[in-house]
Each structure stands twice: as structure tokens, then as C-alpha cells.
Amino acid sequence: MIKFKLPDFNILIGKLRSHSNFMHGVLIVLALLEIVCAIIIALLSKNIEKELAFEFLVFVGIVYLIFALIRLLHLKNYPGTITNELDSERKLKALKKEAYRLSTLSDVHVETMKNLNTQTCRLEEDDGSLCDLGISNSLESLIQPLIDKNYYLLNAEKGIKTTFSLYLAGYKSLDKGTLDHGVVPFSDQLNLKEILVKDLFDKPELDPERQQIQNALKLCLSEKKFRTDKLNIKEEEYLQISSPMYEACREDDDQYLLGTLFIICPFTEIENLKDLEIQLKIFNRVIANWMYSYNSCVTGKKKLKLNV
């Protein structure tokens, strides 16, 4: 895991304070000297006809201009150098934070792929163990690394609660002879399962809370695009993030839409929507491959029952 040492802004603030105090003193001294020079110039102007007075007047005038120029340079440059340094440090901190976030998500990808391998790679088609736990429990186990690091995905504060769900347009079920479909919540930190009913996508005449979720899902699938939607649930503001998911090996083929992965979280401003879209595409591929193995598992288990 990469670790970065964050910049010490107290040092920079100390520099800025010292420079400010110094400049304040310099400006007071220069202002006093300018006043003295102005008084001398005024007195010498009355005796301008004397040669010595004229030369001294020129000298004092030059000194006055030098003092004025020094004060002008201080005003022009302050606090440019230090504030530029502060701005550079701020940008560097942001870049290091983003690099650390992406590094962490890369580790999450690796751990998720390990989970995928653990659940699927050793299975034969007639081994029904993969589908014994059902979709919800198995997916939670599969995506647990992402659930644990959800704040890195959303670039939010640690401790943010989320609900991960799928809408599956078609999947094999042990209980049905045909393909089943519906909403499957598989990690519910926000306690929204009572709202995320299985027939949410198709059900008519929904209450306002469910209707806004259904609308977002249908728009995501019809437009086949990643989207975010603001929700109001139980008088609280939430954000629904929806990403269309394709069947394994059918990426971006509209005829093979598997469904939608959607996340609900307390409303937050997402700084980089494009990055979030890419991250969810990666996890969609993992889930699509898992679903392929799950469907094969169900088929295998049904064959076993027929052969008994």
C-alpha cells in the first residue's frame, strides 16, 4: 500500500505570518521616510534659486522615488511567492490524495477478482454449490472489498453508508422454469430493503419514494448510460448512482443488457463522475462474469435433479 506524507501547512502559514509582519514594518518605515522627504522637498523648493539647494533637492527627490519604488514592489509581490507556494502544496496534496485513492481501488479490484476466482473457477457445471446461498448473499461476499472501501469509490468521508443493488433483467432461478427478473439488494447499510422490493422495476402505481428509484432505473436502461439522480427518502436527500450492465463478453451490445448496478448513498457532490463511471464498469464486468457462472450453476443443479 502506498503511503504519502502530507505537506506541513503550519510551516507555510508561519512563513506567511513572518513575511506579513516584516512587510508591515517596512511599509511603516517607508511611509515615514516618504513624509520626511516630502517635507524636505517642500522646504528646498522655496530656496530653489540656490545651487546647493537645487542639488540637494534633486538628491532628496531621487531618494524619495527609490523609497516609493521599494514600497510599490513590496505591494506588487506580496504575498505572491508564499501564496503560490501554498497553492502548489494544495494541488500536490490533492494529486497525492487522488493517487492514493486510485491505488486503493486497484487493490479492491484485485481482492474482488480473488473472490470471483474463489467462487467460480473451481466449479464444474454440475456443481450446484455456487447457487446454494442465492444471489444476494453471494454478491455481497463477492463485492465485500468494494463495500468496505465505498468511501474511496465515492471519494467521500470515511463512514459513509451505502446500499448496493442490482436490477437483473433476466437470470436463472431454482424455483422457476423460466428466467426470473427483479431488483436484488445485496448490501443494505441504509436499511432500504423494504423500499427496494423485487418487482420495483415493473410495478405500477408506486409511492413517490419507489417511483423516483424506478424512474432512474428505467432511464438508465433505456438510455444505456451511467447516470446520477437525486432522491428524497424519509425526508432525507439521497443520491442514486446507476450504471448499465451487459452480459459477460457482450460489452456495449445493446441486445445483451443484463441489468443495472445501482448504489444509493446520502446526497453528496461527486467530484469526478467520469472516474466513477469507469470504476463501476469494471465491477459490472466482474458481476456479469459471476452471473454467468451462477446461471450455469443453476442449470447444473437442475440437471442433477432430473438425473436423480
Question: In short, what is this structure?
Answer:
The protein has about 300 residues and is of the alpha+beta class.
Please bin the fraction of helical residues: 55-70%
**Integer tally of domains:** 2
The computed structural class is alpha+beta
The shape, in one word, is rod-shaped
Order of neighbouring strands in the sheet with most strands: 2-1-5-4-3
Distance between the termini: 51 Å
Q: How much is the radius of gyration in Å?
A: 34 Å
Task: Give the count of helical stretches.
Answer: 8
Estimate the strand proportion.
Answer: 5-15%
CATH C-level class of the largest domain is Alpha Beta
Q: Segments where pLDDT lies below 50 for 5+ residues?
A: 1-7
Q: What is the averaged pLDDT score?
A: 80
Order of helices and strands: HHHHHHEEHEEEH
By DSSP, the count of extended strands is: 5
3D structure, described in words:
This protein is of the alpha+beta class. The protein folds into two domains: 9-78; 101-307, 2-Layer Sandwich (Beta-Lactamase), CATH 3.30.450. Helices cover 57% and strands 15% of the residues. The protein has eight helices and five strands. It has a five-stranded antiparallel β-sheet with strand order 2-1-5-4-3. A hairpin with a 2-residue loop joins strand 3 (227-233) and strand 4. The longest helix is centred in the first third of the chain and has 41 residues, at 80-120.
